[in-house]
Amino acid sequence: MSIFSMRLTPTVVLAAGVWLISASVSTVFAVDIKSVTSERGIKALLVEDYTVPLVAISYSFKGGSAQDRAGKEGTAQLLTNTLDEGAGPIDSQTFQVRLQDNGMSYSFNAGYDSFSGGIKTLKSETADAFELLRLMLNEPRFDVEPVDRMKASRLNRLKGQETNPRSIAGKAFRESVFAGHPYSRPGEGTLQTMADIGPADLEDFRKRVFARDNLVVGVVGAISAEETRAMLDQVFGELPEKASLTPVPEVEPKVGEVNHIEFATPQTNIRIALPGIKREDPDFFAGYLANYVLGGGSFSSRLYSEVREKRGLAYGVYSYLGTYDHAGIVGSGSATRADRSQQTVDVMLAEFERMAKEGPTAEELEKAKKYIKGSYAIANLDTSGKIASVLVAIQNLGLGVDYIDKRADYIEAVTLEDAKRVSAKLFGGKPTVITVGRKVK
Fold first, then answer.
1. Domains along the chain?
2. Model pTM score
3. What is the pLDDT of residues 361-399, one digit of tens each?
4. Considering only Cβ atoms within 10 Å of each terminal Cβ, which end of the chain, N or C, has fewer?
5. Cα-Cα end-to-end distance for the chain
C-alpha cells in the first residue's frame, strides 16, 4: 500500500521539527526515526516509543506477484495464506494455537512489486512472537492438507469473480493497458493456475524472493536499538543473502482503445486509463494535487460534482495515480445504469479534457494543498503498526528519513503553472475506455 493512500485517524502535530503523535487524549510523545543495522548487515528504521508496551514490525521484500512463474499465477497470493499453516517441527493446528496463545496480530500481503507483512505484539511476548515470525518466513511446512484447504478457499473466490462485473472490468483493464507485461497477469491467479499450484511452487517462490538484499524493515514501539539489531538477525538473518528475481521490464501503458464487454447486469462498470507518472518523477506532487482536483478528492472533486451532484448519473466516481515500480498510470472509474453509461463516459472524458486544457484553478489548488498536507499525518500515523508501514514505504521509495518533515514543503512548492503543465501531460491524449454491462441499442 502507498503511504499516500492509507486511511487512519489520530491527531498529529509538527513542532520544532519533530512529529508529536497523540496516542490518546492526554498522552503525547515525540517520534525520533533512527537507522539501525544488525551484525549481519540487515537495516531497519526504528522509532522507539515506550508509551504502551507494544512492538510493531513491518517488512517488505522486493518482488511480488510479478515474480509468479508463468502458468503458476496466484503463487504469491496463496503464499500469504499458507505461511502460518505450520512451520519447522510444528504442524498447522499446533502452530495456530501457538499464534493464538501469543495474542500477536500478523499479516502477509502480495502486490505486483513486493511481498510484505507485519506483526504487532506485547513487549512481554516478543521472544515467542519473534520466533514464530522467524519460523513462518524461514521454515514454513506447506503440508498438503492446509495448502489444499487454502487453495479451495481461493478457488471459490475466483469462481465468484467470473460473474462479478467489477472483476471482469479489472481483468480487461489490466490485460489491455499492460498487454504482454507481467502486470497484465492475474495476481490472484485463475481457476486453472491456482489449481496447478502445489507446495513445491510455494517453496520455490519463497526461496527466490525472501532474501536479505531485497528486504526493508520498519520497527516501532517499546524496543531499543540493541534489541532491534538482535531481532533483525534472529528473524531475518537465516534468509539467503541475495534474491533470485526475474527481471521485470519497464512498460509504457497502452491506451486509445474502446472495449465493451457484454454482460447481463443492472449496472455498467466503467474504467478509463491514460499513461501516468512514477513516484520518483519530479512532477509527482504536481500530478498528485491535480488528480485530487479531478477525481481523487472524493466529494470535492470535479468528477464527483459533474457526474453525481449535477446529473445524478452514478453514486460514486473517482480517479487515481497508479504508481508501480515499472510503470505509472492514470486510472478512473464509475458504475451506472446501462442506459446512462455512454452519457457517464462522455461526462468523465469531458472533465479529463477540461483538466488537460485548463488545469486546476488557484482556489482548487490551494484547497488541495491544504487537505493533502493536513490529512497525511491524520491518515498515516495513528498506530504503531501504521507508522512501521510508513517507515517501510519511505525506504522502498527512497524518500529519506527526513521525508515526513519535508513533505509539506514539497507540496507547497508546487505552483499553479506546475499543476497546469502536468495536467496537460497527464490528462490529455486519447484514453482507453472499458465498459462491462448490457449494450443499449
1. 32-236 (3.30.830.10), 258-437 (3.30.830.10)
2. 0.90
3. 999 999 999 999 988 877 777 789 989 999 999 999 999
4. C
5. 41
